Amino acid sequence: MIKTPVLKKLNPGFGSSFMVRQHADNREIKNALWHFHPEVELVYISEGRGKCHIGNYFSYFNHSQLLLIGSNLPHHGFVDRLTARGKETVIQFHPDFLEGLSVKIPEFSAVSNLLERAKKGIVFGENTKKSIGAKIELLAEKEGFSRLLIFLEILNDLAVSEDYLLLNVDGFVFETSHKDSVKIDIVYKYMHKNFQKEIQLADVADKVSMTVPSFCRYFKKSTNKTFTEVLNEYRVVHATKLLTESQLSVTDICFECGFNSFSHFNKKFKLITGKTALQYRKGIKLIISE
């Protein structure tokens, strides 16, 4: 079952302004979290299969992947299976990392623009992956100033690349204070626990000690979506997981995800993913069989 979006606290190691993590193994991730954090995240997967859920963007991948995820943009764990040759490298850094440099040093202006675009989520194409992937993997072997120089070069390469796609054109970012993030977390935990049944706005508002009108305004301001829209998206994400990982019929999945009308489920599923549930399942089977 997909976990609730939680605020994750990340801390780079002593003497470093950014984090680098890397692993290379055959594994299956069962407990990846749907989460967000203030840090920008760069993810490079050299080979593998997995899910890609960033904000409102849903996809599966069957090869390499290079993603840049902006501050407070909700996302889900990526890799389901890595091949013996595959590696996943994750770099995380605070958006203030280069604060002020674009003004003092003109060469950094392109990187600042890159981080602004990253608020929507970016997936880079094949040419960029080929030219930058090896540099990203090299970061795990470097330390100190040498690591910093390579990282700045990577950011600049990404900044000037035209081989990319923005994932959330309409935006999906938690522009919140820490206090607001705690409230959002309470809401999502309640949603996670109850999404398979009918949820009343009054019950959700009560969880964060707000009136229904105040809660609706607050939630729309925080997520750029109404609570009902996010709840439907959450249910559809769970449906994509069941379509991929279970043998349940599409009808059974509809009701398992909290929809009380099959026609309503089909309408929302296609609106959010661009496909019907049956088309989605057939597409996943083709990917897995390749």
From TrEMBL:
Q: Keywords assigned by UniProt?
A: DNA-binding, Transcription, Transcription regulation
Q: Where is the HTH araC/xylS-type domain?
A: 185-283
Entries under SUPFAM superfamilies matching the protein: Homeodomain-like (SSF46689)
Source domain of life: Bacteria
What Pfam families does the entry give?
Answer: HTH_18
Q: Which Gene3D superfamilies match?
A: Homeodomain-like
The GO terms describing molecular function are:
DNA-binding transcription factor activity; sequence-specific DNA binding
Q: Which PANTHER family match?
A: ARAC-FAMILY TRANSCRIPTIONAL REGULATOR, TRANSCRIPTIONAL REGULATOR MTLR
Protein's UniProt name: Helix-turn-helix transcriptional regulator
Query: Organism, per UniProt?
Result: Rasiella rasia
